[in-house]
Amino acid sequence: MPEIRKDPVFGRWVIIASERGLRPNEFRQSPGPGGYICPFCPGNEDLTPPTIYSLPGKASGWRLRVVRNKFPALVADAAAGSRRDGIYDSMDGMGFHEVVIETPEHGRVLEELPAEEIADVARAWMLRLREIKKDPRIKYVMIFKNHGRNAGASLQHPHSQIIAMPMAPLRVQQEIDGAADYHDERGTCVFCDVAREEAASGRRVVGENADFLAVTPYASRFSFETWILPKAHRSHFEDAPEGEAATLAAMLKSTLGKLSASLGDLSYNLILHTMPVQDPAAEHYHWHIEIMPKLSHVAGFEWGTGFYINTVSPEEAADVLNSGKKFRA
Asked: In the predicted model, what is the mean pLDDT of residues 5-21?
């Protein structure tokens, strides 16, 4: 049973999940007979937990599947509620951990899929989030994608993950609190203001369509960090209209395509930021997606101070991405 423990100094929660160490790692196993067998490929459905949600396909019988993670960080049948042991607080690792298998094709990457198939992925995220939030024990749902070995992926087959938690993570709460402070001071949403200012200047814009803007943020922490911002204010991702799945897919395809073209063998973390699911709609917060290529490692200075050293300015990154040229470090 996973356990969630609270750091008594910072107030952050840490998941202790020993079983996660048993998950297969494609990068450490050899292919072929007796070697690695991908659990996400068609024909290997018995290697994953049962399907929660799927879309029908042609050759394989499905074109997208959602399953429970076989090696979950959190589990649904754990008890809710915290307990205290001296100065320490903990609770059972209650939550949900799901995998969205984005395509039956092992060798594809997300940006290579047709836009309508990427839209299927976005709709699956929305549908699962709406379903999971019906459980009142769940306070936050994190949707993320680790692509490439350097980004922490253990499997190459295109997939993203959904982890539902009984609390909002400290990092998320800090972002929401910062946005609330900005709203209290200026009366506007900081993300709406960023989108308007970036669209007006164009200096850091790497993509735009009817509903979304992609930018290299002004204070980028990482080289080629890119955000996708909805133009319409909406605090909860799951409240986005169905029609926006198509324009979000187009923006994801374009943005990831530019990153891949400029950076070559791309590893990245993609994280969807949204409001806690049980909270009402908020004027001060705006859901968005952050994409962080892994071109370098966070080292001692960053861990020790919380400051990030970015060796490629967001203006230079936008110029490179828009030119289509290969980046030379």
From this structure: 87
Residues 30 and 156 in one domain: yes
Which of 53-62, 176-185, 196-205 has the weakest average pLDDT? 53-62
The per-residue pLDDT for 79 is 80
Q: For residues 77 and 46, give the distance between their C-alpha atoms in angstroms, rounded to a whole number.
A: 22
Average pLDDT estimate for 287-303 = 90
Average pLDDT over residues 296-318: 89
Q: What is the gyration radius of the CA atoms in the chain, in angstroms? A: 20
Residue 306 CA to residue 70 CA, distance in Å, equals 34
Q: Which of 159, 183, 236, 273 is catalytic?
A: 159
151 lies in which domain range?
3-170
Report the DSSP beta bridge partners of residue 98: 68, 162
- Long-range contact set of residues 306-313: C-beta below 8 Å, sequence gap at least 24: 308/221, 308/222, 310/220, 310/221, 310/222, 310/223, 310/225, 311/223, 312/223, 312/224, 313/220
Whether 106 is catalytic: no
The token duo for 256 is 């990831």
Based on the domain organization, do 216 and 297 belong to the same domain? yes
Domain of residue 210, CATH code: 3.30.428.10
| Residue 234 near residue 285, CB atoms below 8 Å | no
Residue 264 sits in the same domain as residue 248: yes
> CB count, 10 Å around CB of 159?
21
- Tell me which DSSP letter residue 137 carries: T
Q: What is the layout of strands, in order, in the sheet containing 268-273?
A: 51-55, 64-68, 96-101, 159-165, 140-147, 268-273, 288-293, 226-230, 212-215, 205-208
Q: Is the pLDDT of residue 240 over 70?
A: yes
